[in-house]
Write a structure and sequence with these properties.
Layout (H helix, E strand, L loop, with lengths): L4 E6 L4 H13 L3 E4 L10 H13 L5 E6 L3 H7 L7 E3 L3 H9 L5 E5 L5 H13 L6 H7 L2
Parallel strand pairs: 1-2, 1-3, 3-5, 4-5
Helix pairs in contact: 1-5, 2-3, 4-5
């Protein structure tokens, strides 16, 4: 599994932000595994969240980004799987703590809730922050 591969998926409500973040990831040197959606036509978010979950389970990506209108639905679907620790993030501190304390491997964002610049900042922090381990490892093992 390559830590350089980031899977990304969205529904229609997250499509515009996905386009922006996909470009940003490519510019940062990451290989992007784009799992859809391919436009703003209405689709069902669970289908796209499931594609990303499977990509991580299969080892095609180590981490992922899910985007829907609010980020809530995608996060709920992803967290149904024991291999996934998805975090719905709205700011830089949340992105940092999702990695530092919770070892999140999927970042969830609301395409209608967060601006592009803040989403980029959250993504950068999510990708740059290492899991602290220690007392947090004991807790995440219980998930």
């Amino acid at each position: 599994m390559s830590s350089n591969v980031i899977a990304i998926a969205c529904d229609h409500g997250g499509f515009q932000l996905k386009v922006e973040l996909k470009d940003h990831l490519s510019q940062q040197g990451f290989q992007v595994l784009d799992l859809g959606a391919e436009g703003t036509e209405s689709v069902d978010y669970p289908d796209y969240a499931q594609l990303l979950v499977e990509a991580i389970k299969e080892g095609r990506a180590e981490r992922g980004v899910l985007i829907c209108g609010s980020g809530i639905g995608m996060c709920m679907v992803a967290n149904r799987h024991k291999e996934i620790r998805a975090a719905l993030v709205h700011d830089a501190l949340g992105a940092r703590l999702s990695r530092l304390h919770n070892n999140a491997n999927v970042l969830c964002l609301g395409g209608r809730m967060i601006g592009v610049e803040l989403a980029r900042d959250c993504l950068n922090i999510f990708l740059e922050t290492e899991f602290e381990g220690g007392r947090h490892a004991r807790r995440t093992e219980k998930l």
